[in-house]
Structure prediction request, 183 residues.
Amino acid sequence: MIRKIVPYPDPVLRQSGAKIDVVDDEIRRLARDMLETMYDARGIGLAAQQVGVPMQLAIVDVSFDGECVSYLRVNGEEKSTADICPLIFINPVLEFSGPRVAENEGCLSFPDLRGEVTRPEEVRATLTTLDGETLVIETDGLFSRAIQHETDHLFGRLFIDRMSSARKHAIKGYLRDMRERYG
Prediction:
């Protein structure tokens, strides 16, 4: 089922998600709905907050671009994005390395807004699948950026929070319009 994507400034986007201790049929249904919703919106990631549910559940799929990373290791083994995506995960813990890199990002909760966001180039994500398997994913590129972006959502942080002061100033009108339309 395709769910409505929550637009900024809905307060749920600023809520830190509850940790998931038990994966039940309701969580699995939510994950399936989120996957369908993300694909319908032509996104590469979606967090539970973006469909109005403040919990630590997110999805990332960058398999459409097999060259969007220079490396990908899952539990120490070399993998491709097609091997691991779509990645549905809960309760992530991230560690960062490499230089901080500015790249253009967008967000399904901010239609038609893109902007430069600086993030660490590499991530080591320890997360859990819906089947209870712990994965340690080490990667860079778009996959790293998408995991970081969706994990931010799980803790109530938005990509606009990571924009430069100049960019934040430049989008003031856009954010005001979003608050007036959806606030």
Remarks:
- The chain has one domain: 11-182.
